[in-house]
Amino acid sequence: MILTINCGSSTIKYQLFSTDVETVVAKGIVSRIGEEGSYYEQETARGKVKELAAVPSHHEAFEIAIHNLLHPAYGAMADIHEIEAVGHRAVHGADLFIASTLIDDDVIAKLEECVPLAPLHNPPNLVGIREGMALLPDVPHVAVFDTAFNQTMPPKAYIYALPYSFYEEHKIRKYGFHGTSVRFVSQQAAAVLQRPLPTLKMVVLHLGNGVTMTAVADGHAVDTTIGFATFSGVMMGTRSGDIDPGLIFHMHRQLGLSPDEIERIIYKESGLLGVSGVSNDVRVITEQAQAGNARCQLALDKFAYMAKKYIGAFAAAMGGLNCVVFTAGIGENSPLMRQMICADLEFLGVTLDEAQNERAVGGKQVEIINKVGGKTAVLVIPTNEEKMIALDTMRLAIL
Ligand code: AMP
């Protein structure tokens, strides 16, 4: 079996897959590590468990996860040696990793090198890798990077028009995120359309609490909306998306806000929450907009408008468009948002079948929502980053 691990600063999420990655055998989380009220949760065919537990550090969290997987009543395996390989989510691989890779000392050293580029994410990823390798020292471990898929972007897409030394000396460039999700759904899209991926000019809209749009042509990423930090592109639940960078100087010099305060505002108080003043959740905002709240309507309008503009920009960058894919929480569940984004894009061959669009909710299966005969395929595809991690792990460690 293959174990996938997504280790964050206060949470470990794990899934156990059958070796052929066809079946999820167990799915679990250990949450609020090092905080009050920590707990674990696990689901297998034999049942669900959710309990409060003391979890002072990631070390205990890993022990709990393995204990739960081995539990005689609600576990999923009899012996830890049933785990044949482990796949780890790794957030930032900078330009050092263009694909998933088997982990050795050199890979760990390179991941350390990337810490300044992702100070919040790479350290817990490294903790997860070290703890996982200590618990399961005899099996291969694989790192799957969120940034790897975007490494194919051409220099004109990833370079910022700053003095070139900032790129050369400080690695300041566009990296992009959510690459594992985008890679998964773009492969699924090609399979559903029964066309080789390289023949598609595709825009993938990963619309979750975090939002990434990516242009995929010739089978790889050619541009993406998130840049060096994680707030550019389309507005998100609480992040602003694109703003005039000059605002940051203005907020600091004229409004007297400190860099930390500005950062908090841009990341935590902006986006759908900032504009609506109500919530970061499209469900709540939609309800309030329908009840006549004008700022909620504006938040939805602004979100759809920003996404629509990037579809146009990416179609221009790719020299065409024949596939649009919606994924993640909003993309998989909000017919309204999909309809608002796709409205008036007939000139790009995008037309929605209203009934199909309304039906495509719940993130259970792939849905084709373009009108029959529409020039551009429009798909709703449930993302599954864990499955992509497991597939890479199988390919690199088992086959
Ligand atoms: P994710 O980060 O992919 O889990 O997406 C989370 C976001 O998806 C939430 O904050 C909501 O805005 C959105 N979402 C989830 N379910 C729905 C739904 N039924 N309708 C509209 N938006 C939804």
Largest sheet entry: 8 strands, mixed
Present as ligands are: adenosine monophosphate
The global form is globular
At the fourth CATH level, what is the homologous superfamily of the largest domain?
ATPase, nucleotide binding domain
- Average pLDDT metric: 97
Poorly predicted sequence stretches spanning 5 or more consecutive residues: none
Structural class label: alpha/beta
- Number of separate domains: 2
CATH level 3 topology of the largest domain: Nucleotidyltransferase, domain 5
Percent range of helical residues: 25-40%
What report would you give on this structure?
- The protein is built from 15 helices and 14 strands.
- The mean pLDDT is 97.
- With 399 residues, the chain is an alpha/beta fold.
- The chain has an 8-stranded mixed β-sheet with strand order 5-4-3-2-1-6-8-7. Strands 11-10-9-12-14-13 form a 6-stranded mixed β-sheet, sandwiched between helices.
- The protein has helices spanning 58-69, 105-113, 122-135, 155-158, 165-170, 179-193, 246-253, 259-268, 271-276, 282-290, 294-318, 328-333, 335-342, 354-359, 385-398, and strands at residues 2-7, 11-17, 24-31, 39-44, 47-52, 85-90, 101-102, 141-145, 201-207, 211-217, 220-224, 323-327, 367-368, 377-380.
- The protein has 2 domains: 2-145, 2-Layer Sandwich (Nucleotidyltransferase, domain 5); 191-385, 2-Layer Sandwich (Nucleotidyltransferase, domain 5).
- Helix content is 38%, strand content 19%.
- Bound molecules: adenosine monophosphate.
- The site of adenosine monophosphate (AMP) has 12 residues, from helix 10 and helix 12.
